[in-house]
Design goal:
Layout lengths: L14 H4 L13 H16 L4 E4 L6 H10 L4 E4 L14 H14 L5 E4 L11 H21 L3 E4 L9 H18 L6 E5 L12 H15 L5 E6 H6 L7 H14 L5 E6 L1 E2 L10 E2 L12 H4 L3 H6 L9 E3 L12 H10 L5
Parallel strand pairs: 1-2, 1-10, 2-3, 3-4, 4-5, 5-6, 6-7, 7-10
Antiparallel strand pairs: 8-9
Keywords: DNA damage, DNA repair, Endonuclease, Hydrolase, Metal-binding, Nuclease, Zinc
Organism: hydrothermal vent metagenome
EC number: 3.1.21.2
Length: about 350
């Protein structure tokens, strides 16, 4: 894994340093030619729309992923900033950074982009070599988000494997101590994602997530750097029944009581192949799993999805689809189909 400082300043620059350079002084200010449209879009999103997005491929470029999201009708996007199946990473191309930032500025999406960290990372591992390797890779993930101006970095808490839950939670908190020290001053927020709790994976219950965040705060004293990501499939398969709207409202109330909705930075909107409490992490299209119970709007309006996409305190939270990508028989991208289903259950 990369050692600290291996990337030169010319290739990897923090957001603080970027604002000091002439080429990026205006990245927090809309260019005059774009100001009216981008500002209007931003205000429209903040005050009238919920921010729906999808996890999209960067195979044709980072900026292309963002533009594709817009073309599909979304107001947000989630990406991997690297190959998530590999430990080694290439430095971000400065041109790719510039193209991404220009696309995000034009779209007015400075506050609604998300990155998902590599699944290889295990900050709870009792194995010192894997643990340190995971911290190194998580640091790289954070540096990439900071360079791109991506505000939210989602990751799975980790699995304790041969130790126990308490030890695993402690290991994650210690990893965060190192991580926050390495990335001091960064704006990127780490988002702990709930899991189905299979095997020794941590983060299934809201109680455990809340405990973990507090342990991290005890180690770092940085509450502004630590938030949550709520995945509907994971919650449902993990034991929180989202199959009814009333159930969804109760689940969100419980999350608010234990974790705080103000700390919820990202939502993953996925239906679940598995039944409630099945511990099966298998995503389904909206309405085609055990949460939605059907694709008709009248059915979905009675599901937990309706509770989520109509909650007034979640209007500023990016809601990201992580559903299968195959097109319909008519060739319509399923992202567009899922988005239409979600829009169709929003209260007037």
């Amino acid at each position: 894994p990369r050692k600290r400082g291996e990337w030169g300043e010319s290739k990897m620059v923090s957001r603080r340093d970027q604002r000091k350079t002439p080429s990026t002084q205006g990245r927090d200010m809309l260019r005059p030619s774009l100001a009216r449209g981008a500002l209007f879009d931003r205000l429209l999103i903040l005050y009238t729309l919920f921010m729906f997005g999808s996890h999209l491929s960067i195979s044709k470029g980072l900026d292309t992923a963002a533009r594709n999201a817009k073309a599909l009708g979304f107001e947000a996007v989630q990406i991997f900033t690297k190959n998530q199946r590999q430990w080694k990473t290439k430095p971000l191309d400065p041109a790719a950074i510039t193209d991404w930032q220009q696309a995000i500025e034009e779209l007015g999406w400075q506050h609604q982009t998300v990155s998902h960290a590599s699944y290889l990372i295990n900050l709870a591992s009792p194995d010192d070599e894997l643990w340190h390797k995971s911290i190194d890779l998580m640091t790289e993930e954070t540096e990439r988000c900071e360079a791109l101006g991506i505000p939210f970095l989602v990751h799975h808490p980790g699995a304790y494997t041969t130790s126990d839950a308490a030890t695993g939670l402690g290991r994650i908190a210690l990893a965060y101590k190192s991580l926050c020290k390495r990335t001091a001053g960064y704006a990127t927020v780490f988002c702990l994602e709930d899991t189905v709790g299979s095997g020794s994976n941590l983060g299934r219950t809201f109680e455990e997530l809340a405990e973990l965040r507090q342990l991290i705060l005890d180690q770092t004293g940085a509450p502004h750097r630590v938030g949550f990501c709520f995945d509907t499939c994971h919650a449902h398969a993990g034991g929180y029944d989202l199959s009814t709207r009333a159930g969804g409202e109760a689940v969100l109330a419980e999350f608010d009581r234990l974790c705080g909705l103000d700390n919820l930075k990202v939502i993953h909107l996925n239906d679940s192949v598995g039944e409630v409490g099945s511990r099966k992490d298998r995503h389904a299209h909206i309405g085609e799993g055990t949460i939605g119970g059907g694709t008709a709007a009248r059915v979905l309006r009675e599901s937990g999805f309706a509770a989520v996409v109509n909650h007034p305190r979640l209007k500023a939270v990016p809601m990201i689809l992580e559903t299968p990508k195959e097109p319909t028989e008519a060739g319509t991208p399923m992202d567009a189909v899922n988005l239409r289903r979600l829009r169709g259950i929003q209260d007037a």
